[in-house]
Amino acid sequence: MRNLLAILLLLATFTCKASDVSPIPERHRQINVLSYDFTIDLNDVNDEIRGTAKILLQLAEATDSIRFDLKSVNNGKGMTILGLKAGGKPVPFLHRNDLITLSSAGGKKNDTTLIEITYKGVPGDGLIISKNKYGHRCFFADNWPNRARNWIPCNDHPSDKATVSFQVNAPADYSVIANGELVSDEKDSSGRRITRWQEKNEIPTKVMVIGVADFAVGDAGRVDDIPVSSWVYPEERDNGFYDYGQAALILPWFIGKLGPYPFTKLANVQSKTIFGGMENAGCIFYHEQSVDGKRTSENLLVHEIAHQWFGNSVTERDWAHLWLSEGFATYLTDAWVEMQHGQQAARTLLAKQRAEVIDFHQQQPGRPVIDSMETNYLKLLNANSYQKGGWVLHMLRLKIGEKAFWEGIADYYQRYRGKNAGTGDLQKVMENHAGIALGDFFDQWLRQPDFPNLEVRWKSTPGGLSITVHQLQNTLMKFPLRIAISGAGGTTHVNIPIDSRKVDEEFRLPYIPTSVTIDPDTELLGVWKTTPVK
Ligand SMILES: [Zn+2]
């Protein structure tokens, strides 16, 4: 997703060290949900929902008990369970502290069980029931990161992906959008609208959604037989269709770069998401101010469309690897800007993102990109996951070259499509394509918090230039430093391999150097101070 400023203001100082291998919590790990089938009843009298969840699961390991996430009632908000069956029979359960525990529904590894839960309540979050900016009542799911449990019982962790169906029973004048394909849309005998959508690809709970509102629905065309549609507030019909219709122009570039689109449709939905945009699978929700008829949300669309491949189809196996979603969406947006608006526009964007990483690092030093210490996942919506993650991909592309980079990214998608992946999985795929070991590269940029902080001193010499580069940051790093040396005779670009605390270099030049520019092409994530020495 794209974060709003309000989210950034929640950030607090935090220091940690990360590990790739922090285990997934036991209760999330024990079960593998295969499919969710939800029926959700909505009404206009109050904000209470009634739900039925049919959850088909397989035990990933032997266990006595099975646990699901579902918010308990607290201050009038939350869910009350009306009935619960396992394998068609009522079973004892405990619903306390936002957790449903079925203490006798377990079994041995690979056993499958169908759990059926009926429940009701007023969602405190996760399903936003409110009025849109025109005062019309609407219902928008907004599950990221672990807010699905506010309105649907589930194994609320990105490692447990499943197919999902939503049947929404709503008053007749609402339209209903959800993940997947439309199965049926009809009126029942009392005139209520019964709409059923089914997503046959396994997706994480964070991107399972329904949107229920008065929508104007526009067909934006087909791309490789994928229908692209716009769902906007009727008051902004024309502007909304124009702005969101751009998705059909963006999609072919991604398919060409990454491989087949992962889902069966792409709906672009004006919504009440708390985020700037939320990449819900095949059903992107944008904030309600995102329409202006001028396509100023282009980069927002690009970012959320990129997530369909990375985040939704290839899903990080744990929150610590969130950069595999957000860093990818950030850098694929940079790459789109480069293709669409030119290299200078992309460099300007990268320079801005670099400044944001440096600013974040000054406010919250000591945090690596792979951040297994943070448990408030909203705080992972930070410049490490987004901008630094994007910069790591940028530097990887420069390091291994265009061919290896793009073929590697497409291969990574192909291998982990519909599954989970960790940073180590990406590293292995990219090593295959690069033909070199990338452990040092991944370690220094993702698994420790520092980036280069350089002191550069240079001096004109008879016939050239001498230069000294000091690394001042705690962790010694290895990287190429590109510099531009200018004088009356022109400008020369040279690369200096930096691999020790202090590097001295001499360059012979046919002119007297008068200035040195560090990183003229925006290729290094770092800071530096350049001093000419007399
Ligand atoms: Zn994102």
TrEMBL record:
<keyword id="KW-0645">Protease</keyword>
<dbReference type="GO" id="GO:0042277">
    <property type="term" value="F:peptide binding"/>
</dbReference>
<feature type="domain" description="Aminopeptidase N-like N-terminal">
    <location>
        <begin position="35"/>
        <end position="205"/>
    </location>
</feature>
<dbReference type="GO" id="GO:0070006">
    <property type="term" value="F:metalloaminopeptidase activity"/>
</dbReference>
<dbReference type="InterPro" id="IPR027268">
    <property type="entry name" value="Peptidase_M4/M1_CTD_sf"/>
</dbReference>
<feature type="signal peptide">
    <location>
        <begin position="1"/>
        <end position="18"/>
    </location>
</feature>
<dbReference type="GO" id="GO:0008270">
    <property type="term" value="F:zinc ion binding"/>
</dbReference>
<dbReference type="GO" id="GO:0016020">
    <property type="term" value="C:membrane"/>
</dbReference>
<dbReference type="InterPro" id="IPR001930">
    <property type="entry name" value="Peptidase_M1"/>
</dbReference>
<keyword id="KW-0378">Hydrolase</keyword>
<keyword id="KW-0862">Zinc</keyword>
<dbReference type="GO" id="GO:0016285">
    <property type="term" value="F:alanyl aminopeptidase activity"/>
</dbReference>
<dbReference type="GO" id="GO:0005615">
    <property type="term" value="C:extracellular space"/>
</dbReference>
<dbReference type="InterPro" id="IPR050344">
    <property type="entry name" value="Peptidase_M1_aminopeptidases"/>
</dbReference>
<feature type="domain" description="Peptidase M1 membrane alanine aminopeptidase">
    <location>
        <begin position="260"/>
        <end position="445"/>
    </location>
</feature>
<dbReference type="GO" id="GO:0006508">
    <property type="term" value="P:proteolysis"/>
</dbReference>
<dbReference type="InterPro" id="IPR014782">
    <property type="entry name" value="Peptidase_M1_dom"/>
</dbReference>
<dbReference type="Pfam" id="PF01433">
    <property type="entry name" value="Peptidase_M1"/>
</dbReference>
<keyword id="KW-0482">Metalloprotease</keyword>
<dbReference type="GO" id="GO:0043171">
    <property type="term" value="P:peptide catabolic process"/>
</dbReference>
<dbReference type="InterPro" id="IPR042097">
    <property type="entry name" value="Aminopeptidase_N-like_N_sf"/>
</dbReference>
<comment type="similarity">
    <text>Belongs to the peptidase M1 family.</text>
</comment>
<dbReference type="GO" id="GO:0005737">
    <property type="term" value="C:cytoplasm"/>
</dbReference>
<dbReference type="InterPro" id="IPR045357">
    <property type="entry name" value="Aminopeptidase_N-like_N"/>
</dbReference>
<protein>
    <recommendedName>
        <fullName>Aminopeptidase N</fullName>
        <ecNumber>3.4.11.2</ecNumber>
    </recommendedName>
</protein>
<dbReference type="Pfam" id="PF17900">
    <property type="entry name" value="Peptidase_M1_N"/>
</dbReference>
<keyword id="KW-0479">Metal-binding</keyword>
<keyword id="KW-0732">Signal</keyword>
